[in-house]
Design a protein that fits this description.
single chain, alpha/beta, six-stranded mixed sheet, five-stranded parallel sheet
């Protein structure tokens, strides 16, 4: 590290960020994930931490394009040919005793992230190649940062970070002015600026060294372990990594405060950092009461709560988003015979209920597809709704994502016994990616897809091939596209690749045409034909439409 990096002690504000970094400096196993906007100071703080670690601590920046051998090292082939299993150093070994920083960790390949987190928690890396095996020590503080607008990190990987927090830029003009002034003084004379904080930097180094020595003397009691587990389960967290992270962070906090035993204030100080990326309920929020034994709710206010949720969903995703095409079905005979009409298989169209729904929504008995009510057997298992969304055009992509968010909220909130699940694939630029793996919790799903990058080219074929990996026997694929494709997959013709991938889909499907250009209509019709999909317009997309396709 350069002595002229911005000093840790000079960071203005951000008390939670500085606390989390200091905890990690005491116990290197407390890997830390920083989430926040660009320009919020994540990289500056990470570099500043290395400057207050013991003398000579390295700071290694992991480039996103690093290969597995460059990151993890491997066997030295020259030595291996002579029968000697010598380990060739990778970036994890260069970071030993210091900081390994991964900017935009959510863009790193999942396999590399997984391997990196394995090493960060164990402190060792094992190489097995062609009969040779070798292990090497690699103990470092792992710091990952990400901008949520650039995509999400898989929940399985996020859970493996011990601590996490949102790094937000202050909105108060006075605070922002102080930060800018501090940076201007550093840029104008780095030497003098760093010298002004050297006393505080030295005090922090000494405090870290003393805390590292003190932490080994802390012996948590059985009662304290139960208290930690109680707090973790109260937050709705199942992962045992959370309990261990709270314990280690509490020990580091107590050691930094000069104590050799953990107090409740230590647990309270670190809980937000441990539960931030894991909790399904906010700390302090009471757990939900058990469900009533009967099918009817006996809790006061439930009806109002359901109505409130329904009203909120309707604001996000209105039931009547536009007039649906008129059905060309001859129902006269069916109506004269009774209240239902056979449609397909075991399904029965509730004729009277359908006309009633139509009249309520339009004021007239003009039956449209959105108003059909079916009598169908209850599904024994849940449905996997796979949304494949074109995010290549910024304005149109935003419209599509608004529709997807509304659909996700409506589908998961109304899921019977919470059996249904939703997955989302976004495609833009050079490739598609799964931004939301199958999820049954509406709040978690909406949090992941809240901000997604837009713009760039349209890799439609790759998105459809990626969707095949998520298809199950009870899946419904919903493709939102304007019928354009300009990134080839296997041939030189992007559209031919897209049609070929569409033909390989083996599940029920809906194609949502989001185009405003009439010239693309033939393309979406051809794509829907290849997918054997129901073709609808964006303003026709509704929960009822999707459930009717499932039925």
């Amino acid at each position: 590290m350069s002595a002229l990096d911005y000093p840790f002690a000079g960071i203005v504000g951000q008390p939670q960020l500085k606390l989390a970094l200091l905890l990690a400096s005491v116990d290197w196993r407390l890997s830390l994930l920083l989430k926040g906007d660009k320009g919020s100071g994540k990289s500056t703080a990470a570099r500043g931490l290395a400057n207050i670690l013991p003398s000579g601590a390295p700071f290694v920046n992991l480039p996103i394009g690093a290969t597995e051998d460059r990151l993890l090292g491997g066997l030295d082939l020259g030595q291996a040919l002579q029968g000697h299993a010598n380990l060739k150093r990778g970036l994890i070994h260069e970071a030993h005793g210091g900081v390994l920083y991964v900017d935009e960790v959510n863009l790193l390949a999942d396999s590399l992230t997984d391997a990196l987190l394995d090493v960060a928690s164990s402190g060792h890396h094992y190489v097995e190649r062609d009969g040779f095996s070798k292990s090497g020590e690699a103990k470092f503080i792992l710091l990952g940062s990400m901008n949520i607008e650039e995509g999400a990190l898989r929940p399985q990987l996020m859970d493996r970070f011990a601590l996490s927090l949102d790094v937000e830029t202050p909105l108060d003009p006075e605070d922002r002015a102080r930060i800018v002034d501090s940076r201007l003084r550093f840029d104008a004379d780095p030497v003098s600026f760093c010298a002004a904080f050297e006393g505080e930097q030295h005090a922090l180094r000494r405090a870290i060294l003393e805390a590292r020595s003190r932490i080994s003397k802390i012996n948590p009691s059985a009662g304290l372990l139960r208290e930690i587990s109680r707090e973790v389960t109260h937050a709705g967290v199942r992962s045992l990594r959370a309990d261990l992270a709270v314990l280690r962070a509490s020990m580091a906090h107590a050691a930094l405060r000069g104590r050799e035993e953990i107090a409740l204030e230590d647990i309270e100080a670190v809980l937000p950092l441990v539960l931030h990326h894991r909790a399904k309920r906010n700390p302090g929020e009471p757990p939900p009461p058990p469900p009533p034994e009967s099918g009817q709710s006996n809790r006061p206010g439930d009806e109002e709560s359901r109505e409130g949720r329904s009203e909120a969903r309707d604001r996000i995703f209105p039931v009547e988003m536009g007039k649906a095409p008129e059905l060309r079905l001859n129902l006269d005979d069916s109506i004269s015979r009774g209240r239902t009409a056979s449609v397909a298989g075991s399904q029965r169209l509730e004729v009277v209920a359908s006309f009633t729904q139509s009249f309520r929504n339009t004021g007239k008995a003009a039956l449209t597809s959105d108003h059909l009510v079916f009598r169908t057997p209850n599904l024994k298992s849940g449905v996997r709704f796979i949304f494949v969304v074109d995010t290549s055009g910024s304005h149109a992509a935003q419209q599509r994502m608004r529709a997807v968010k509304g659909a996700v909220a409506a589908l998961l909130d109304s899921s019977v016994d919470h059996k249904d699940e939703v997955a989302v694939i976004s495609f833009r630029g050079a490739k598609a990616e799964i931004v939301l793996y199958p999820c049954r919790d509406a709040a978690s799903a909406l949090r992941v897809i809240e901000f997604l990058p837009t713009g760039g080219r349209t890799p439609l074929a790759h998105a459809l091939e990626l969707a095949i990996s998520l298809v199950t026997p009870a899946a419904l694929l919903i493709l939102l596209t304007d019928g354009r494709a300009n990134v080839p997959l296997r041939s030189t013709d992007p559209w031919a690749d897209a049609l070929d991938a569409a033909g390989k889909l083996n599940c029920a499907a809906v194609l949502v045409d989001s185009s405003i250009d009439p010239s693309t209509t033939a393309a979406t019709q051809a794509l829907a034909s290849s997918m054997r999909a129901k073709l609808i317009r964006l303003d026709e997309l509704s929960r009822e439409t999707l459930l009717n396709v499932v039925r």
